[in-house]
Amino acid sequence: MKSEDKEHLKEQLHQTEKQLLWYKSFFDNATDAVFIVQPKTWSVLDVNEYAAQILGMSRNDLLGEILPQFRRIFKLLSKSNSTIVLSELSLENNSGEQVMVEVSARFMKFDGSELILALARDVSEQHALTDKLVHADKLVLLGQLSAGVAHEIRNPLAAVNLNLQVLKRRFTPEAPEYEFIDTALQGVDRISRIVEVTLNFSRPAMPDIKDVQLNSLIVNTLELVTAMIKRKEIKVELKFDESLPHIAADSKQIQQVLVNLITNASDAIKIKGIIKIETYTEKFGKNSEGRYAVAAISDNGIGIMPEDLTKIFNPFFTRKADGTGLGLPITQRILHQHSGIIDVESSFGIGTTFYIKLPVHNQTKNK
Q: Exposed, middle or buried: residue 76 (CB in 10 Å: 0-12, 13-18, 19+)?
């Protein structure tokens, strides 16, 4: 072989190697997960790094892995008139969790064999978001239905209450019928409160924003709930930041938030305990340019069970025998209307702390 032919052959080999490296790099760095699967055995012949990453495995460990889920893809391709099929598969990752992937697949010929080439992308988060949106839609519909039902209940309930009051006056307190009627009236009163809270939740009022001093509002609120707190041996401890800046808020709505949280703290204490209320400022934002006026309300009551912690702001969720399950959702919505947030930390059997955080605006007065 002539020397120039050898050089030409070497150059061709070099170009072929470069092309192979190019396609290998393209395969490895594809933004979708790539699976090459052998039909009938469902063995993984090759994958790229992203496919291994999705399943939490190394590429070497994934090679040769049996993925019987591709049997369905094979059947779809065999029956389809199209060369490409789109479907979803649930694959198990290295931790034993299911990962939902959207798969675009086709047959490919290689070395006389027909293989499955599949491009996949992780849609687990998309599915989770869809589930949340469906849940949100259900809550909206439930809220509308509840508002309608509550409105329809109001008038006949008023008639029941009026007739029970008339009937009660016909008996003396010593009569056995008196106690039965009194119990019925208590039930009517409870239904009335549920109806009122449901309607308030369904048709919230827009806040009437004014300059508010949070420390003073807490003191005024405690006067409203003193009788309830005194039913148990509860000590209230206050620790105020005297330089706490004013906030722009609807004082009645924020007072409703405080009443809800202090009531919950009192309910969490069985017989004897402590409710601590502390105020302070907290910075927030990318460069800590913003400030929250914070009220932390703590109790050493029974706490919240870990499995309940993610549900407490769901409408109608409650563990109280006489609860409506709307106190905390209303509290959260009021704070959101004020551009504020509510955080909670709780240890079951030890106690709970709710953090009310309301933004301090530059235009509000500071004292």
A: middle
Domain coordinates in residue numbering, the chain: 26-122, 127-202, 210-359
Give the Cα separation of 246 and 239 in Å (integer): 17
210-359: in CATH 3.30.565.10: yes
Per-residue pLDDT of the chain (367 residues; tens, 9 = 90+): 666 666 767 777 777 777 777 777 777 777 788 999 999 899 999 999 888 888 999 988 889 999 998 998 898 888 877 788 888 888 888 888 888 888 889 999 888 889 999 998 887 766 666 555 555 555 555 555 666 666 677 778 888 888 898 888 888 888 888 889 988 988 888 787 777 666 665 555 667 888 999 999 999 999 888 888 988 999 999 999 999 999 999 998 999 899 999 999 999 999 899 999 999 999 887 666 788 999 999 999 999 888 888 888 887 778 877 676 778 888 888 898 898 999 999 888 999 999 999 999 764 444 4
pTM: 0.50
Superfamily (CATH) of domain 26-122? PAS domain (3.30.450.20)
At 179, list the tokens.
Answer: 């106690």
**Contact status, residue 240 vs residue 215, Cβ threshold 8 Å:** yes
For residue 116, list its beta bridge partners: 37, 107
- CATH class of this structure's domain 127-202: mainly alpha
